[in-house]
């Protein structure tokens, strides 16, 4: 692999669960992919995205499935690519839905036009959206950490154990994490708060969550995986060596 990126992988153990954490610097090209622009078909998997990128003389360095999606195989919330709005903000409330997304507060993760990355609680973003020019964005839920505090609905005694993935931003570095075994929301969120030191963190998905780092897969076992609706990815141009 070429050194034209500053990605790094950390394997950390917390509460007897191993976490795979990929650090993405502000210099790495982080993008969001849902559908192939040429065919209008969703990528659905890391391998399909990788093969498409190869045709464009690019290679897939890192990938992780993005936010929660609906039964119609479309994002359940906000989705932007290259500044184009593909799905609007979901302003769901506690009274009109069930599921992780409606564990208010939920939130957004986006790459701004100036290259900065942000995790914000949805209502916070709505109040301040004129300050931003998002290029790539996803909405998911629940928020794991808000202003340094764990989500109020998370409890240490919860027996809801699942493979989980999430994202946070600290000091211009984006951290994507996935668990190697099931964990509850409380200890998953606590990892972002206590181990990564993030003041705001967003849950991406569970059960089927995986990440790919330099071709190796971490997270849920393959039999848990279903087609992905969105994929966050870091790519780089192919060199003569990698195209052989």
Brief descriptors of the model:
244 residues; mainly beta; seven-stranded antiparallel beta sheet
- Give the percentage of residues in beta strands: 35-45%
Stretches with pLDDT under 50, minimum 5 residues: none
Based on helices, strands and strand pairing, what is the structural class? mainly beta
The tally of domains stands at: 1
Mean pLDDT over the full residue set: 92
Report the count of strand segments: 17
Largest sheet descriptor? 7 strands, antiparallel
Number of discrete helical segments: 3
Rounded to an integer in angstroms, the radius of gyration calculated over CA atoms is: 17 Å
Helix content, binned percent: 10-25%
Helix and strand run: EEEHEEEEEHEEEEEHEEEE
Give the termini separation.
Answer: 12 Å
The largest beta-sheet arranges its strands as 1-2-13-12-14-10-11
Overall morphology: globular
Your description of this structure?
InterPro entries: NAGPA. GO terms for molecular function: hydrolase activity, acting on glycosyl bonds. Residues 61-227 form the Phosphodiester glycosidase domain. With 244 residues, the chain is mostly beta strands. The protein has one domain (8-237). 11% of the residues lie in helices and 38% in strands. It has three helices and 17 strands. It has helices at 46-55, 122-128, 185-195, and strands spanning 8-14, 17-24, 30-33, 58-65, 79-81, 84-87, 107-112, 117-121, 134-140, 143-146, 149-150, 164-170, 173-179, 201-206, 210-213, 216-219, 231-237. The strands form three sheets. It has a seven-stranded antiparallel sheet, with helices on one face. The protein is globular and about 50 Å long.
């Amino acid at each position: 692999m070429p050194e034209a990126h500053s990605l790094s992988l950390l394997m950390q153990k917390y509460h007897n669960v191993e976490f795979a954490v990929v650090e993405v610097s502000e210099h790495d090209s982080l993008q969001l992919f849902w559908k192939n622009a040429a065919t209008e078909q969703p990528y659905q998997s890391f391998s399909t995205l990788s093969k498409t990128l190869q045709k464009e003389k690019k290679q897939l360095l890192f990938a992780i499935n993005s936010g929660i999606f609906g039964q119609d195989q479309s994002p359940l919330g906000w989705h932007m690519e290259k500044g184009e709005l593909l799905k609007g903000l979901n302003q769901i409330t506690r009274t009109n839905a069930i599921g992780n997304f409606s564990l208010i507060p939920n939130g957004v993760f986006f790459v701004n036009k100036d290259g900065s990355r942000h995790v914000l609680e949805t209502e916070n973003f709505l109040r301040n959206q004129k300050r931003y020019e998002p290029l790539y964005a996803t909405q998911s839920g629940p928020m794991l950490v808000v202003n340094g505090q764990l989500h109020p609905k998370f409890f240490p005694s919860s027996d809801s154990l699942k493979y989980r993935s999430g994202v946070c931003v600290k000091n211009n570095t984006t951290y994507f994490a996935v668990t190697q075994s099931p964990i509850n929301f409380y200890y998953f969120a606590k990892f972002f708060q206590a181990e990564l030191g993030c003041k705001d963190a967003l849950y991406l998905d569970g059960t089927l969550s995986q990440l790919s780092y330099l071709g190796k897969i971490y997270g849920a076992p393959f039999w848990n995986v279903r087609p992905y609706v969105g994929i966050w990815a870091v790519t780089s141009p192919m060199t003569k060596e990698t195209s052989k």
